[in-house]
Amino acid sequence: MLTVLGSLLLVACSSLHQRPPETPATADIADSEALMVAMGQLGAPYRYGGASPERGFDCSGLVYYVLRQSGTEVPRLAGDQYADSVPVGYRDLRPGDLVFFRTEGFAVSHVGIYLGNGQFIHAPSTGSFVTIESLDRPYWREHFVRGGRVSHSS
Fold this sequence. Notes:
The protein is α+β, with helices and mostly antiparallel strands and 154 residues long. The chain has five helices and eight strands, in the order ααββααβββββαβ.
């Protein structure tokens, strides 16, 4: 399964920032499981307040669902996920880390899951679907706040 995920990441856009090549294999087992759960949600519809494949997902609902499925408890809302995570800089992101954005005002309002190679998975907005994007797209680069690492429950 990691081979399939790795292949999908190689097909994705190349990064404008200089960063060493990463693959989900560099993540620990809990991160790898979370990445597989996240990839399984690709194409699920966006739904405000949604946190399940049956209902659809908003951004923090996707993170909440994915991490719970892999045995990690996190808060439900993006701002709380931000506050509950250990800060990680752009250059130190590892697959499985969360990526936080300010898209509205001063508060963190969007979150995704870092896949490696400058890519992240997220539930973007009403009318869209869970998708993979590049952190190097101007919109995401401009709104990026920081990464966040969560500790995994066992």
